[in-house]
Amino acid sequence: MSKKLSNLKLASLAVMALPDQRIVALRPPQYETDELIVTGVEVDDGRTLVVCSPKSPAAGADLEAQYHLLNLLGTWRDNGQISFDVPRPVAITRSRKTGGALIHTKVPGTTMDEEDFTRKHLAISVGRAISSLHSMKTGELATLEVPYISPKGSWMHYRATVRAARKTNRVPQNLIRRWSNELLRKELWDFSPVPVHGSLAADSFIIAGDTVMAIKDLARVHCGDPAQDIAWFLAAANEEFFDELFNAYTRARKITDSAPLLDRAQFITELNLAIWLLESIKQGNEEDAQEAEEMLRDLASELGDSINFTPPQESEAEVVIMPDRDFWNAETSVISESELASADSDSAKEDTE
């Protein structure tokens, strides 16, 4: 189906969903992703609405969840509970044949891009907006059944990723050691889950001048590690922009010791390269796998470590990756003895397959 026909299809969905509105023209934004087809439509009162149609049942479920989440966030914005706006849902249609559509308002402003990372006051506004999102009460999201990932869950996920990266024999062993040591730092995993965006990037923000007006693309919102949202900017923004953003964020959240959060964001940023490598290998995309491998080499060099791809002896690897049992038995432990034993058993099974 051509892009024009796809946009016309979405316009027809809007006509069916909004019988009291007259659609007069197609308007930006118009784009397509792996999950969605999106177009803007102009209605006869001059407003532009955005029509999003899913390409799969999973994407349709995400749109359904977004519809309810946007309604809740819109109410919080109207009540002054958050500092940023969100697209306001107008209608949602459900259809097995067409996949249905979510129709929401277009927030005034422009989409932020990486060229804006030179503006100090914008960095401060972005930091405050992320802080506002992370300061929402997790209990209020519980009614929407958004995913909840505990510190224990985060730790186990990252531990599994480090193990999988080690098995490829394509990640410098000094990086494996570095990441394993981060997993052993108890203070890093003693955090309270908060509402996080989950897929933040520059174009997640609608801005006007140096002010964040809205945050969009909320399909991956969940309660989890705040460092996940910080990590993207740590990797993509220049040092000055990030410092302003992070300082504004920590001031707004009244964080007195920000070192664990920053170190965890750095850990996530580095590990994302390993995740890219693993996904590329899984998809059989050797070109991307080689690029990820090269970036991992560069990272190892940048950290001042020698490059070594020689797999360690199994006993040595276990010492590196396995925490001391007493580490998890303290009062602030992130994972219990039985849960760790279960995870070890599952990992052992994977190793023999």
Written overview of the protein:
- There is one protein chain.
- This protein has 353 residues and is an alpha+beta fold.
- It folds into two domains: 104 residues, Phosphorylase Kinase, domain 1, CATH 3.30.200.20; 225 residues, Aminoglycoside 3'-phosphotransferase, Chain: A, domain 2, CATH 3.90.1200.
- 50% of the residues lie in helices and 15% in strands.
- The longest helix is centred in the C-terminal third of the chain and has 25 residues.
- The radius of gyration is 22 Å and the shape is globular.
- About 8% of the residues have low confidence.
Structurally, how many domains make up the residues?
2
What is the CATH architecture assignment of the largest domain? Answer: Alpha-Beta Complex
Task: Indicate the structural class.
Answer: alpha+beta
Count of discrete alpha- or pi-helical segments spanning 4 or more residues:
12
Strand order of the largest sheet: 1-2-3-5-4
SSE inventory with pairings:
Elements lengths: L2 H15 L5 E10 L3 E8 L4 E7 L2 H22 L10 E5 L7 E5 L4 E2 L8 H15 L3 H4 L9 H18 L4 H11 L10 E3 L8 E4 L2 E5 L6 E3 L2 H10 L2 H15 L5 H25 L2 H17 L11 H8 L15 H16 L1
Antiparallel strand pairs: 1-2, 2-3, 3-5, 4-5, 6-8, 7-10, 8-9
Helix pairs in contact: 3-8, 5-6, 5-9, 7-9, 9-10
Gist?
The chain is α+β, with helices and mostly antiparallel strands. It has 12 helices and 10 strands. Helix 3 (120-134) runs parallel beside helix 8, helix 5 packs antiparallel against helix 6 (173-183) and helix 5 (151-168) packs across helix 9 (259-283).
Structural features:
alpha+beta; 353 residues; 2 domains; 3-stranded antiparallel β-sheet; Aminoglycoside 3'-phosphotransferase, Chain: A, domain 2; 5-stranded antiparallel β-sheet; 10 strands; 50% helix; Phosphorylase Kinase, domain 1; 12 helices
